[in-house]
Amino acid sequence: MDGYRLVSEVPVRFSDTDGMGHVNNANYLSFLEVSRLDYLRRVLGVVKISEFGVILARVEVDFKSQVAHGETLLVGCRVPAIGGASIKMDYRIEDKATGRLVAEAKSVMAAFDYARGRPARVNEEWRKKMEAFDGIS
After folding, report:
1. CA dist 15 to 12, 21, 27, 28, 33, Å?
2. Quick check: 81 and 29 in contact, CB under 8 A?
3. Among residues 37, 52, 104, 121, which one has the fewest Cβ atoms lying within 10 Å of its Cβ?
4. CA 135 to CA 80: how far, in whole Å?
5. What are the pLDDT digits (tens) for 25-76?
6. Who contacts 110 (Cβ-Cβ below 8 Å, separation ≥6)?
7. What pLDDT, on a 0 to 100 scale, did the predictor assign at position 91?
8. How far is it between the farthest Cα atoms of the chain?
9. Residue spans of alpha helices (H) in 3-123
10. Nearest-angstrom CA–CA distance, 73 and 94
11. Each residue of 87-122: pLDDT tens digit?
12. pTM of the entire structure?
């Protein structure tokens, strides 16, 4: 998948579909979450949920084509920009078998100090790892 170094494979389950036989729009957020968590684990080395230190602040999805049970999706995830307290992410979802574009999405994660219950600055170690992985300057 061009432009995405991190790509997660997501099989479409029967429970992801609705009465019309295609994946319900709400389930795309779960597909993005799989890739986002893979990114945090692989790129930043985060293992425990308590170490994530971020909250999802915004998501937007552009749906391009329908998906049905039995398909396997590839979900690319990358970080195009990092702010003082926010991390922007881009996603691309394709059908694994055909390469058909399924959806494109964007999200913003906000750094968050769970112990204090308030926003925080982006961890500098994380910033360096994301900048190196995604070529952000």
Report:
1. 8, 10, 9, 13, 17
2. no
3. 121
4. 8
5. 999 999 999 999 999 999 999 888 777 789 999 999 999 999 999 999 999 9
6. 54, 55, 57, 85, 86, 87, 119
7. 98
8. 47
9. 27-44
10. 6
11. 999 999 999 999 999 999 999 999 999 889 999 999
12. 0.94
Judged by phi (left if over 0) then psi (alpha if -120 to 50, else beta), residue 38 lies in alpha
Rg of the chain over all Cα atoms, to the nearest angstrom: 15
The DSSP letter of residue 99 is -
Cα 109 to Cα 12: distance, rounded to the nearest angstrom? 25
Cα–Cα distance measured from residue 24 to residue 39, given in angstroms and rounded to the nearest whole number = 24
Q: Work out the burial of residue 89: count CB atoms within 10 Å of its CB; fewer than 13 is exposed, 13-18 middle, 19 or more buried.
A: buried
Q: Which residues pair with 76 in a beta bridge?
A: 7, 92
β-pairing, 118-119 with 6-11? unpaired
Within 10 A of 41 (CB to CB), how many other CB atoms are there?
Answer: 14
Pairing of strands 101-113, 86-95: antiparallel
User: Please, which residues have CB within 8 angstroms of residue 26's CB and are 6 or more apart in sequence?
Assistant: none
